[in-house]
Amino acid sequence: MSEKLSRRKMLSKGAQAAFVGAVGARAVPAFVPAPLKSKPTSTKGVDYYQKLGVTPFINAAGTYTVLSASTMPDEVQAAIALASQQPVNILELQDAAGAYLAKRLKCEGALVTSGAAGALTVGTAACITLGNKQAVLNIPTDMSGLKNEVIVQKAHRYDYDHALRNCGIRYVEVETMDDYEKAFTNNTVMCHFFNAAEGGKISRQDWIRVAHKRGVPCFNDAAADVPPISNLWNYTQMGFDLVTFSGGKGLRGPQCTGLLLGRKDLIDAAKQNNSPFSNTVGRGMKVAKEEVVGMVAAVDWFLSQDDAAMEAEFQKRADLIAGKLRALPTVQTKTFIPEVANHVPHLLITYDQNRIQISAAEVMQKMRSGKPRIELNPGTGGAPASAGLPGGPNTIIVGVWMLQPGEESIVADRLYDTLLAALHS
Ligand SMILES: *Cc1c(COP(=O)(O)O)cnc(C)c1O
Fold first, then answer.
1. What's the CATH number of domain 87-303, 3.40.50.1100, 3.40.640.10, 3.90.1170.50, 3.30.70.3190?
2. Please, are residues 324 and 411 in contact by the beta-carbon 8 Å criterion?
3. What pLDDT digit, counting tens, does each position of 42-55 carry?
4. Could you identify which of 61, 107, 179, 216 might form a hypothetical disulfide with 375, taking C-beta atoms 3.0 to 4.6 angstroms apart as the criterion?
5. Is 65 in the pocket of ligand 1 (CB under 6 A)?
């Protein structure tokens, strides 16, 4: 036996002794490695929704975060199952996925993020820290010497403000073109645009033109704004330096994914502010290999779809439900397609509450508590969540685009029965 070998043996003996001492001389169970797998097994999983007592529902709402947004098409689920079985280097995967996505989505650079909100954070961080390694460590608590003003239209302030504020920025609000031109200072780091905002006076093109005159990058939050499919490149090609889409909404990727698209140098800077790098603002917005692959597979799936065919399918579902309900006295229906976000047919159902004596909110509750559970659009009954959808106290809103094939009939029957039961002659 060589000297080297015997030394190693001794060392390992010593280490084992120390370990046994630490656990109080209990027998150490043998480690049984899991078998290596190279292709997906057909193992049937445990139904943890059932085991935990959490009841899934038919999604007649849309892609709402609290309702788990969307479900993934089979090919996306299969790609994730396959990717989950082998380890890879996350940076290599991110780079390869980014290059692939940039090519398919006709932009310079792309990054898979933890969601559109995560993309807002690491994209803002990119603008602040571009070319400054120390700044990556310093934001958001030590902003000295860093530009920190983000110009935004007053009408574009929204529920995702915090995603930008995580980087230590402060908002500078403008309303008119004149305000906008005057708002730039030496501290201006980014101009932010909320793509689906209603009521802003300054157009996308003017927003970009003025910012670029001052050398300031523009970010467009288009999280919920596919379909149409072409939006995936419309805004980067219009000149926005950064654009985000949610991966878990219309794209039907994993819920914890998003796309950050745009200028290559900013995308590279965003990467430096993101997981897997530990000391960054984005470390808590980890993106796993399953999510990177799921996002890429979802983009491939989405690009294989057709806008007209999708709209026709959604319209057909809406028509089926409408046809059934119009047999009830006083019921009126129409379909509505929001201009920008959630740009797909939604079914609006109204009726005379003197005849059908139940409020839309009560209908929603009955659908939720029945079997199977059905979630109607949260704008039903004129709730504030109706953003972009015309509602009212007795308007039922059905989002048909996340229904699984055949579920439109179940929704139609249940709504019919619920309204019929409240009918007074
Ligand atoms: C949904 C949404 C987000 C957040 O998207 P996630 O992918 O859930 O992080 C951000 N901005 C807007 C406008 C959205 O609609």
1. 3.40.640.10
2. no
3. 678 999 999 999 99
4. 61
5. yes
